[in-house]
Amino acid sequence: MASLQSSFTARPTIPTTRIPPSQLAVTKRSVVSCSGGGVDRRNMLLGLGGLYGATSLVPGQKAEASPILPPDLSTCDPKGAWTTKGSEVVVLDVNCCPPYTDVQTDYKLPRVTKPRVRPAAHRISKEYQAKYELAIKKMRELDVTDPDDPRGFTQQANIHCAYCNGPYDQIGFPGIDLQVHNSWIFFAFHRWYLYFYERIMGELIGDPTFALPYWNWDNPRGMQMPPAFDNEKSPLWDINRDPTHRPPALVTLTITNPPVTDPVQIVANNLTQMYKEMIGDVESAIDFMGDPYSAGNAPPARASGGSSEGGSHAGVHVWTGNPNNSNREDMGNFYSAGRDPLFYSHHANVDRMWTIWKDIPADYSKDIEDADFKDAAFMFYDEKKNLVRVKVADCLDHRKMGYKYEHSDTPWMAYRPAQRAVPVDIKKLSKNANRPDKLFPLKLNKTVRVLVPKPSKGAADEVLVLEKIVADSTKLIRFDVFVNDEDDKPQELDRAEYLGGFTQVPHRARAQESASDLRLNLKELYENINIGDDDSIVVTIVPHINGDEVTIGGIKIIPRVAA
Ligand code: C2O
């Protein structure tokens, strides 16, 4: 890594501004109460995702499978985007609702003649960059000349706000937000969003093959903000970014506090994170894609999201947004993220990760057959301003949608952490660890070590569950989890002992998000730490940002139910 990295200069990043702790009681937040933890992954494997969802007590829930339906635009709440300041609910000064029309059709994918090729943003030519700038300039002009044109820059940005900060209720479930994050519909929603965004750009510049550049943050050569975006005169510029993160600052896919400043360590952490969220930590399609989410379910909480969504995806959002803004606008909050042109290139790479993951050989199936997944639907305006309904099932093969990605190397594929030679002395290590019965429920205001019993000895196929995590959804949250860690170097994630982390991008939901269980697969970690035949492990939980906003209900290790 050092050689790839040598041209980057070390540049210290400024510690994240801490948001003052909120006094907001979780129980006061909502009108809808909801029982217990996240959707049990086993239900989905039995094809019962809709039946035994997290929200079986929500009034009006039907027992049959029922996919998320596209929103009813006529009921979009113009004052529906909220956040909080301290204990106060603050309605954001933004109307995210799209222009209304009742003419809508089911979208049919047009036949592909010549695929669009999405290039890596850090190596686009001057000519390509000029085209891209022209497209965004034309979108921005529409904001002024025809603010009701759904293809305008602000209208497009507001799509993201409308689908994740509360303006839409689910059809048939008044008071329950439609939320496209933290579940298995995450990838599909954003794929469709980019699909139309790209077609709109092509339409506005009269080039039907124009393709959105992707921010190649998974490769060391793409780990800076792509140069095209770092020009104050360009339509691609956005003032609401972290001013300390302009090139040559390196993106950190995982956030630690204090931040890592050594560029070699940043790259090592990033590649480790990529390896884990794409390969090492993933034992099923649900692990990668996210938990089931069906009609009537309360908005899923962060722990229900897939490994990629909660990992690199969330990390880049937080890294890009300005910590000096009250809601970390633009990229650091879902309501404003779409206002930064970088958002779309970021999500092009998130989408590229979906395509790459699908092709990585694995001993589990990459497909989700549940009808609640495939029939989930959304509403978009196409490049001709038609309101169209789209289904998840129709976006599962991106090639049929007429685009592909220019190749870029994926060095993270071979970045599994090195194995420990000998197991740790668990007796010795557990001397400084707490017993779980005394510790929970736990407010995560400092680093904790817990001795957790295993259901079976040694390197079994097991899952660590942090139970009933409650975290204020309007707050940035970050913590990490290590196992049998003697060294206590929470900034070095490229070690055998690093299990995984939790990043929550702030957003606001009207209905309370359910407490959810964070599940971290232990199978590969046991091999990495060379666990021997121990019957317990010491888990270290390290809060980095706003740990005092997090409560963890319990901790346990369970056998993983194989797909
Ligand atoms: Cu809709 Cu990156 O979030």
TrEMBL record:
Record-annotated disulphide pairs: C76-C97, C96-C161
Binding site for Cu cation B: H313, H317, H347
Region listing for Disordered, in residue ranges: 1-20, 297-325
Record text on cofactor binding: Binds 2 copper ions per subunit.
Cross-link 2'-(S-cysteinyl)-histidine (Cys-His), where in sequence: C164-H181
Pfam families in UniProt: PPO1_DWL (PF12142), PPO1_KFDV (PF12143), Tyrosinase (PF00264)
Biased composition (Low complexity): 9-20, 297-306
UniProt: Cu cation A binding residues: H160, H181, H190
Cofactor field: Cu(2+)
Taxonomic superkingdom: Eukaryota
Keyword annotations: Copper, Disulfide bond, Metal-binding, Oxidoreductase, Thioether bond
Swiss-Prot/TrEMBL GO biological process terms: pigment biosynthetic process
Domain Tyrosinase copper-binding: 181-198, 340-351
Family of the protein in this entry: Belongs to the tyrosinase family.
The protein, known as: Tyrosinase copper-binding domain-containing protein
Organism in which the protein naturally occurs: Salvia splendens (Scarlet sage)
